[in-house]
């Protein structure tokens, strides 16, 4: 699985002035709708944005063999990238026009390995949206079985471009 319109080169990215002219929610909706490029890492790791609302973002993903560790299960970095993406993007939905964010730290707890090829949903939910920080939590669950595969939490730094 890959994004229909994932960034493949720097030329695919939205120019900084256009990016800063949008609220975080408008930006995330544009990514979801394919009007602007999604994250390049999503194409590499097999995940994409499917739902966006204020304070909530859902990605869908499917780990493949290329995402495994030496034991043949998804590498912890795959869970981390997926959770970091959904949680930080939930924060992004609260960022005002003219501002942007970056992840300060995140934590991941894997509860069981996701079977290769299985579709999962990663939901990020905002817990705090302040002027300078955003905090969110996330879960990865099986799309069909509903089982919990991993949880996470993040703190993001919100910065003004001005």
Q: Work out the helix count.
A: 4
Low-confidence stretches: none
Outline the biggest β-sheet: 6 strands, antiparallel
End-to-end span in angstroms? Answer: 38 Å
Strand portion: 35-45%
| Percentage of residues assigned to helices | 10-25%
The coarse silhouette is globular
Could you walk me through the main structural features you see in this protein, from its secondary elements to its overall organization?
The chain has 162 residues and is α+β, with helices and mostly antiparallel strands. It contains 4 helices and 6 strands. It has helices at residues 16-20, 24-33, 40-45, 76-92; strands at 47-53, 56-61, 99-110, 120-129, 133-142, 148-160. Strands 1-2-4-5-6-3 form a 6-stranded antiparallel β-sheet.
Summarize the structure.
Helix content is 23%, strand content 36%.
């Amino acid at each position: 699985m890959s994004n229909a319109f994932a960034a493949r080169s720097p030329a695919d990215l939205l120019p900084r002035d256009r990016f800063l002219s949008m609220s975080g929610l408008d930006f995330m909706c544009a990514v979801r709708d394919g009007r602007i490029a999604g994250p390049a890492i999503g194409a590499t790791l097999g995940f994409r944005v499917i739902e966006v609302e204020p304070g909530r973002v859902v990605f869908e993903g499917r780990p493949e063999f290329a995402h495994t560790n030496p034991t043949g299960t998804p590498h912890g970095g795959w869970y981390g990238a997926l959770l970091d993406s959904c949680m930080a993007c939930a924060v992004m939905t609260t960022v005002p026009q003219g501002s942007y964010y970056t992840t300060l730290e995140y934590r991941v707890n894997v509860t069981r390995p996701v079977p290769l090829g299985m579709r999962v949903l990663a939901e990020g939910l905002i817990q705090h949206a302040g002027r300078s920080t955003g905090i969110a939590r996330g879960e990865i669950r099986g799309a069909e079985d509903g089982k919990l595969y991993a949880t996470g939490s993040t703190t993001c730094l919100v910065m003004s471009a001005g």
